[in-house]
């Protein structure tokens, strides 16, 4: 579903963000992307749908090379949800925000209407459909940002910090929502307990390279590995608890 092969990327100011980064994700996997600030997580995510393109190396999505020639089809597969929902919500109402993507895909109005309501139902926010994005809570904004992607029926979801800045109830709602979705997921997060609960596999990156790739619960029990990469063990490890 997603393959990075020896990807190198430098920002215009000379920052070396990705340094020969390679990994592959199969259809149906849920993979956490972990690492310290500045590790390259956001840069990696922006390569998945062609917002950024490598200086060298290749990115493939569902067998397609991510380049200018394939951008439209790649973006039909990849749904990217930004950390700050304000970057994703810009229309006068929630209804219009969710319909923006399907309308730009050229779908007929009846299908767009169906997708809007299906996405709102999935995030359990049908009752705020006509509200302006500025007049809903931050937790609701995070779920509506996800709904804008669900309405496009992308099969690969790339999520940047989906639980950041959420109160405990909103965080639990987000985890339960993502757990219900039938999609391949790559989730960048500093929420180690979220990764422990939701993602069977994790990638740890640092200085633009993959430093560990394996079962989440094995990696997150390796305290030396976590310490070397600016991470802490989840509560289940710190407090000797076992989670199902």
Essential attributes:
244 residues, alpha/beta, Rossmann fold, 6-stranded mixed sheet, 4-stranded antiparallel sheet, 10 strands
Summarize the structure.
With 244 residues, the protein is of the alpha/beta class.
Mind explaining what this structure looks like?
With 244 residues, this protein is an alpha/beta fold. It has one domain (2-236): P-loop containing nucleotide triphosphate hydrolases (Rossmann fold, 3-Layer(aba) Sandwich), CATH 3.40.50. 35% of the residues lie in helices and 24% in strands. The chain is built from ten helices and ten strands. It has helices at residues 41-47, 71-77, 94-104, 109-122, 138-150, 168-180, 192-198, 216-219, 223-228, 235-238, and strands at residues 2-10, 16-25, 30-34, 56-61, 64-65, 78-81, 156-160, 184-188, 201-206, 209-215. Helix 3 crosses helix 4 (109-122) and helix 3 (94-104) packs parallel to helix 5 (138-150). It starts with a strand and ends in a 6-residue tail after the last helix.
């Amino acid at each position: 579903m997603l393959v990075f092969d020896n990807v190198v990327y430098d920002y215009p100011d000379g920052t070396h963000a990705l340094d020969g980064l390679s990994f592959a994700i199969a259809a149906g996997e849920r993979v956490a992307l972990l690492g310290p600030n500045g590790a390259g997580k956001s840069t990696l995510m922006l390569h998945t749908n062609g917002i950024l393109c490598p200086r060298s190396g290749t990115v493939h999505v569902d067998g397609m090379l991510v380049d200018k020639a394939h951008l439209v089809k790649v973006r039909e597969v990849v749904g990217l949800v930004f950390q700050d929902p304000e970057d994703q919500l810009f229309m006068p109402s929630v209804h219009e925000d969710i319909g923006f993507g399907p309308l730009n895909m050229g779908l007929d109005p009846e299908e767009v209407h169906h997708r809007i309501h299906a996405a709102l139902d999935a995030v359990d926010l049908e009752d705020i459909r006509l509200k302006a994005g500025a007049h809903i809570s931050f937790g609701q904004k995070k779920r509506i940002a996800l709904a804008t992607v669900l309405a496009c029926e992308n099969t690969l979801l790339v999520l940047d910090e989906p639980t950041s800045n959420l109160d405990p109830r909103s965080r639990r709602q987000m985890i339960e929502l993502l757990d219900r979705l039938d999609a391949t997921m790559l989730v960048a997060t500093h929420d180690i307990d979220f990764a422990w609960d939701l993602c069977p596999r994790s990638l740890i990156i640092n200085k633009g390279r993959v430093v560990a790739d394996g079962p989440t619960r094995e990696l997150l029990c390796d305290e030396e590995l976590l310490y070397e990469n600016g991470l802490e063990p989840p509560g289940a490890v710190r407090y000797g608890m076992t989670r199902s």
